Amino acid sequence: MDIKQLIYLTNLERERHFGRAAEVSFVSQPTLSMRLKNLERELGLSLINRSNNFDGFTPEGERVLTWAREIVSVYQGLKLEVESLKHGVNGTLRLGVMPQCSVALPALLKAVEARYPQLDYRVAAMSADQLLEALNSHTVDGGIGFFELTSLRELHFQTALLKDPGVEALFNPAHFPALLEQENISLATLACQPLCLAEPTRYFRRYLDGQLRETGLIPRVIVESASIMQLLQSAQVGLGVMVSPRGHLLPELMQNLARRPIEMAPMGRQAALVIAEPGRASPLAQHFFDEARRHLPD
């Protein structure tokens, strides 16, 4: 058994296809298949369900995968640590991010850049369940999202809690002049406006829908999108009122928009930056986490 066999196995898990797994492993498909068959022979176990195509892993294969992920993660962490000792902290950090979390991620990354200018980022939008699974399987190095605190404690993640600054309405004052007269916007007033909201599957949208439902209010959602930029542009041209956690958007993106706090109960989940527990987090993730939490709002 060698590390390449375990890398091929984890690549196959991620790609769910022999050809694509071979491509990301930089080998031919016959080579990848042969090395995985050799691994099965050495272990004396069938790991992969084979038909004409990849058909998932056997129960034994799932158990071996759990170890393979850990070993590959430690191996990659060792490589990064050696590189950082020779050339400083550098490489690509994989981040999973839940949309509309209460921090402007580009501003945070720019602050970290001052300390680690050679660090690159690959950012993927994920749901809470996807993010937890990605962190556990080491397919991302860190995450920013809304979490149940009990889940974070049970999983032993390193956690930097994000401040909850509340929720605000963003609108074009030329199209919604009456909202300018209010210091705070009630849910009843908000429900009377055409709204620009994220898709119902997003946690922040579910939180907002729950608050409205508890008060018996049924809003008109004029624009619904997975794209924050589409929602922001819709608010800028006066199509409707965008609802967003405060601190999520850069001030430069909100030019020509008015902002008013919305009177709402706090979220049930806690926004946080998380990485794996000490010893399991990659050196790259640990360097990023230690520096990033210095720049989070108090």
Automatic annotation (TrEMBL):
<dbReference type="InterPro" id="IPR036390">
    <property type="entry name" value="WH_DNA-bd_sf"/>
</dbReference>
<keyword id="KW-0804">Transcription</keyword>
<feature type="domain" description="HTH lysR-type">
    <location>
        <begin position="1"/>
        <end position="58"/>
    </location>
</feature>
<dbReference type="InterPro" id="IPR000847">
    <property type="entry name" value="LysR_HTH_N"/>
</dbReference>
<dbReference type="InterPro" id="IPR050950">
    <property type="entry name" value="HTH-type_LysR_regulators"/>
</dbReference>
<dbReference type="InterPro" id="IPR005119">
    <property type="entry name" value="LysR_subst-bd"/>
</dbReference>
<protein>
    <submittedName>
        <fullName>LysR family transcriptional regulator</fullName>
    </submittedName>
</protein>
<dbReference type="Pfam" id="PF00126">
    <property type="entry name" value="HTH_1"/>
</dbReference>
<keyword id="KW-0805">Transcription regulation</keyword>
<comment type="similarity">
    <text>Belongs to the LysR transcriptional regulatory family.</text>
</comment>
<keyword id="KW-0238">DNA-binding</keyword>
<dbReference type="Pfam" id="PF03466">
    <property type="entry name" value="LysR_substrate"/>
</dbReference>
<dbReference type="InterPro" id="IPR036388">
    <property type="entry name" value="WH-like_DNA-bd_sf"/>
</dbReference>
